[in-house]
Each structure stands twice: as structure tokens, then as C-alpha cells.
Amino acid sequence: MVKLEENLRLGKQSVEEKLKQILLFFIPDQCHDTYLLEHRFTDVPCFKALVSKLLGFAIIAGSLLVKVPQIMKIYKSKSAEGVSFIAVLLDLIAITSHMAYSYVNGYPFSSWGDTSFLAFQTLVIAELILYYQCYPILSYVFSMAYGGFAYTLCSGKTPLHVLTTMQSLNIPILLIGKLSQAFTIYQNRCVGQLSAVTVFLLLGGSLARIFTSIEETGDPIMIITFCSSTFANALIAFQVICFWNNKPARNSEQTYTSAQSSAAVKGRTKCD
User: Which domain of life, per UniProt (predicted)?
Assistant: First the structure.
């Protein structure tokens, strides 16, 4: 009987230790006593830290599928019309630079983990754009080149000051890339194969990342980067709302057979 009670006590302690380890994964060390010993669950600094952690992991979970709607839309239509390759390329460079900068600096995974999944999905979008623009070989070469680029940045072989500079350059890179996409939408007067779901998820993610960056890293470069990203994503989201009902014009050769009609159609804009 005594041995059974001892085993139950040890089992209870083991469960408590595991629960503590799980909680410590979501709360900073300084909040251990506040929550587990003093039971002050309304402590504002610790509550903000807990919310930041949970929000960070929620963003990571969401990032697993955030660009899948965009990928599927391009794949099903067999066209990347309306999606700017320059914007996607610059976005990929910015995401990878941010991932490497955060990883090498040892920031919590909850503050940057989504970039690893976003980088992969953005790479797939870039490959699809090249593939459907009749450059299949170039799409494979691009993938291999990107793999070497990402490994060099994340392997620790790139000096930290270089990564810091690249992270600083993310601000103009993001703005140029997003504004390039915004210009494409404005020029065509339609969203083409751009996924509205992806656009709004990216806007929500970048907005939430401002809060998590403030709470978990305090890095001013990262905070300014996400503020810039939020502004650019908001602009594209606004355009999606404005031009959502506009449809791409059919190719003139498919719609009209006469040369006179074809010439008339060529003078039109790309989207009705």
C-alpha cells in the first residue's frame, strides 16, 4: 500500500513537471513564479508575454496554408496573370533574409517561425510563374539557386553585420515588391490570379507580427519592417476590394477571328 502511494506521488510529480515544461514553453522564465507559485494570472506584463507567445504560434500554424490558395489558383488556371514575378521575388528575398537574421540572433521561434513556411510557399509561387510563362528549365535552376542562397544565410557562414544590413534593406525591398504588385493590379484594373484569401491572411499576419516583435524581440528593425509590410499589404487588400469584380478580358485571337476586330481589341486594357 505504501509503495502504491509512493508511485502515485511520483506519478503526480512527473505530470506536474511536464505541465510546467509545457507552460514554460509559452511563458518567459520571469513569469514562472507569477503564474505557477503566486497564481497572479492578471499580471499585465506576463499576460502580454503569454498572449504574444500564443499569437506567435497561431501565426505559425496559419502560415502553413496562408499562400496555398494562391498556389492552387495559379495551378488550376495554368496561368499566373496578374501576379508580379518581381514582387514575388523581392518578397522571397525579404522573407529569407528575415528568417536568417532571426535564426542567427537566437530569437524565439514563435517570433519568426512562420517565415520558414512562407519562404517555401513563396518559392513554389515563383516556380509556377516561371513555369507557366514557358520557362520550365529556368524554374528548376531558380529553385537550386534559392536553396544555395538560403543555406548560405542560415548556416552561420554569413557575418551577422551582413544579415543586419540585409534585414534593414528588407524595408525598401518589401515596399518595392508590394508596390510592384499594387501597380500591376492598378494597371490591369483587376486582380487576375491573385488570391484574396492569401492577401487578407498576409495582412492579418503582418499586423499581428508588430505586436509579437515588440513583445518578444524589441528589435526596432523588425518592428519597422512589419509596420512597412502591414502598410503595403493593406494597400493591396484595398485594391482587391476595389477591383474584385473586374474580370480579365479574353484573348483577342480567341474572341474574334477577323483582323479588324482583333485590332480593336488590342487597344483595350488587359482587364474589363
Answer: Eukaryota
SS3 readout for 71-90: HHHHHHHCCCCCCCHHHHHH
Instruction: Quickly tell me which residue has 484573348 as its cell.
Output: 251
CA 70-74-80 angle, 5° bins: 110
Q: Which residue has the cell 544590413?
A: 165
Please state the φ and ψ torsions of residue 193, each to the nearest 5 degrees: -95, 15
Residue that is written with C-alpha cell 491572411 in the block: 201
Helix 220-243 vs helix 196-216: crossing angle, to nearest 10: 160
| Contacts of 43 by beta carbon, 8 Å cutoff, 6+ apart | 31, 34, 35
Indicate the burial class of 113 (C-beta count within 10 angstroms; 0-12, 13-18, 19 or more).
buried
Q: Model-level pTM?
A: 0.71
Q: Indicate the burial class of 184 (C-beta count within 10 angstroms; 0-12, 13-18, 19 or more).
A: buried
Q: Place 257 in a pLDDT band, splitting at 50, 70 and 90.
A: very low
CATH of 168-243, one of 1.20.144, 3.30.70, 1.20.1280, 1.10.3470: 1.20.1280
Nearest CA among 29, 173, 181 for reference residue 101: 173
| Segment (H or E) for 5 | helix 2-26
- What is the percent of the chain with per-residue pLDDT over 70, rounded to a whole number? 78
Locate the domains of the chain by residue range. 15-64, 66-158, 168-243
109, 175, 233 from 183: Cα distances, Å: 34, 12, 13
Residue 201 in grid coordinates: 491572411
Please check whether residue 176 is in contact with residue 90, taking contact to mean a CB–CB distance below 8 angstroms. yes
